[in-house]
Amino acid sequence: MGSDSLQRLDIQHSLHPVTALAAHEKRGPTVIVSGRGARVTDADGHELLDGFSGLWCVNVGYEQPSLVEAARQQLETLPYATSFSHFGNAPAIELAAELARVTPENLQHVFFSLGGSDAVETALKIARYYHSARGEPQRLHFISLERGYHGSAFTGAGMTALPAFHAHFGLPLEFQHHIPSHDVYRHPAGPDPAAIVRAGLESFHAKVEELGAERVAAFIVEPIQGAGGILVPPPGWLPAIREACSQHGILFIADEVITGFGRTGPWFGCEHEGLQPDLMTLAKGLTSGYVPMGATMMSDEVYRTLVDRVPEGTVFGHGFTYGGHPVSAAVALAVLRLYREGLIDHVQQVAPHFQERLAELRVHPLVGDVRGLGLLGAVELVSDKESRTPFDPAAKVGARVHAAAYRGGLLCRLMGDTLGFAPPYVCEKGDLDRIVDLFTQALDDAAAEVERR
Ligand SMILES: Cc1ncc(COP(=O)(O)O)c(C=O)c1O
C-alpha cells in the first residue's frame, strides 16, 4: 500500500497512544517500514539512527536472526498454549527458571503478562493479596513518585504521576499517593545527595504517617525514572527508602520495565546499590520488543504467602489469556542468550564513552542538564542556564530539536523540553558518537530557529 493511502487510513481509523489526537488528524503518522541493526527507515525512504531503541525496548537491534528463528520454530511447534488451570508450556517454564537465575537472588518466582502495564497491575494486585493472606486486608494504599511512570492500565496509570495520564480519567484513585521525585537538577533541597536522600525519607515517612503505616500495601519506583525525564536518584536514595519500607512492612516494588536487562550497565537497575526488591516488574528488554511480554518477579517470602496463607483450594484469581505465551517465551530465551553471550558486557564497555560524549553537550547554549547511566541518557533544555529557567512551553523548543534531529537522521525521545536517549546495545562507539554529533547539529538548528522567532 502506498504512503498516501496509509496516511489517509491511519487518520480515518487509528487512535495513537500518548499522542495529541487532534494534532494527529492534521499531521498523520510517521510510518516506519523497516529496521536493520541500529537503524530504521521511514515510508519516505529516510534512514534514521534509532537513538531510542523504538520505545526503549529494541535493545538487541532490529536484525537478529536467532530471534526470528526462535519465533518461527515455536510457531511451527506450538503457537499457543494456556497457562491457566495447571497447564504450561516448555519455553515459559524454562524462561521462568532463567529469570529466577538472572534477577536478584531473592526473586525466585514469576507471573507472566503481556507487557509492562499488566506486569505493574499484577505487582499491585499481588501486594494486596499478600497482605490480605497475612491477615492485613486493610493494607490497600500505594505510594509512588511524582513524575513516575508505571504504565497506562487503570491502576498503573494512577501510580504514574504525569498529568496527561490522570486528566479526564478520574485518576489517581483514592488509594493512590505520590511523593516528590529525587530530581537532582531541580530539587528544592539543592544538589547535595545527602540532603536529597534526607528529603526523600522525610516525605516518605510523612506520607506513611498521614495514611497510617498499617494501611499501606506497597511503594513502587523505577530505579531510574524514565518517562518522567530520565532522573537518576543520588546514591543512597533507593536503599534508604527500601529500608524504610521494610521497617513499616510495606512491600518495595522495583519497576524495571526500562532499566532491566542491562540498560543502565548491570543486568538490573537495582543492582547498582545491591537492592533486593520484594517484587520486580519487567517487559521491553525481556523480548527486546520483538514480541509482547511482561513479567512480575516476586520474592520467595511473597510467593510462599500466596501459596501457604490462603485456605486450601483457593484459586489465585488473576491471569491473562496470553500470559506465558510460548512464542514470546521462546523469543525471550533467545534474547537472554544474546545478553549473556556478550551484549550486556558490550553495554558496560561502551556506556562510559556515551556518557562522556553526552556530557559534552552541557556547554551548549540551550542545554541546562545532562544526566544518565549506562546506555540511558537525557538532555534538558533551558532558556537560562544560571537560573535553570525552563523555556516557555509555547515556544516548543524541545519539539523543534526533536524535529531537527529527525530531519538530520536521528530518532530520540521527546519528553517536554527533555530529550531522551536509549540506543540499541548493538551500537559501537562510532554509532554513539554519531548520535551525539547528529543531536548537536539538531541543537544548533533549533537554536537558530529560536533566535529567528
Ligand atoms: C517503568 C515503566 N513501567 C511500565 C511501563 C508500561 O509498559 P507497557 O507500555 O509495556 O505497558 C513502562 C513503559 O514505558 C515503563 O517505562
Would you write up a description of this structure?
The protein has helices spanning 3-13, 21-27, 53-56, 65-77, 90-102, 116-133, 154-159, 193-211, 237-248, 300-308, 326-359, 397-408, 429-452, and strands spanning 32-36, 39-42, 47-50, 107-113, 141-145, 176-179, 216-221, 251-255, 279-282, 294-299, 367-373, 376-381, 410-411, 413-415, 418-421. With 453 residues, the chain is an alpha/beta fold. It folds into 2 domains: 3-63 and 344-452, Aspartate Aminotransferase, domain 1, CATH 3.90.1150.10; 66-338, Aspartate Aminotransferase, domain 2, CATH 3.40.640. It has a 7-stranded mixed β-sheet, sandwiched between helices. The protein has a 4-stranded mixed β-sheet with strand order 1-2-3-13. β2 (39-42) and β3 form a beta hairpin. The chain is globular. It starts with a helix and ends with a helix. Bound molecules: pyridoxal-5'-phosphate. Pyridoxal-5'-phosphate binds at residues 115-117, 120, 149-151, 222, 226-227, 255, 257-258, 283.
